[in-house]
Amino acid sequence: MSGQQRIALFIDGANLYATTKTLGFDIDYKRLLKEFQGRGTLVRAFYYTALVEDQEYSSIRPLIDWLDYNGYRVVTKPTKEFVDSAGRRKVKGNMDIELAIDALELSPYIDHMVLFSGDGDFRSLVEAMQRRGVRVSVVSTITTQPPMVADELRRQADEFLDLSQLASRIGRDPSDRQQRPAGEGNDRPRTQQQQQQPRNGALESRYGIRQQGSDDEFDL
After folding, report:
1. What domains are there in the chain, each with its CATH number?
2. Mean pLDDT per 10-residue run, the chain (220 residues)?
3. What was the pLDDT predicted at 117?
4. DSSP, residue by residue, 44-87
5. How many Å apart are CA 213 and CA 190, to the nearest integer?
6. Is 99 exposed, middle or buried (0-12, 13-18, 19+ CB in 10 A)?
């Protein structure tokens, strides 16, 4: 890739977390930025996630705060709760529209869009970006059964990057699980309320979205 190309990252947080969880590794978000900064001029790195509003403490808040202070543009919105036809409580937080709008607005200023998602609903967005002269890479995996990326999305992309092959460059060393993440020194001090949360939950949330329950949904 040319060092002069302008790159923007668009990360579907819930989808990426589900994919890395299936592959058995955690993202080191500092290394992820460094990886793509080495491929060109990184214009923006967006991270999208929905938040449960009525929780006194959100398990993903430490991650959101860290990303916000360390080079990412974090986009959030409240989740919606509903009951399905079987009477099961479900929480839905779809960020597709927000991601699509940001990508289309940024399209005149970038050469390469890197989409971290396997959601087939993004196929139309990928096609629209390509019509505007933007090259699109999709990052997910086909190594799982079933694959975590929709076939129509993978086919539409100019390039498909399998997350399993990127793990050695953007993954977190398992030995660091009980250590503070690289670059975390830029975090704001933890509040008294945060300090009272279980340590393992805080660590998990710093590296990926922690599912809010077995009935949570993400799109493919």
Report:
1. 6-205 (3.40.50.1010)
2. 81 95 95 96 96 68 93 88 68 81 98 97 98 98 96 98 96 65 38 37 37 39
3. 97
4. EEEEEEEE-TT-SS-TTHHHHHHHHHTT-EEEEEE-EEEE-TTS
5. 25
6. buried
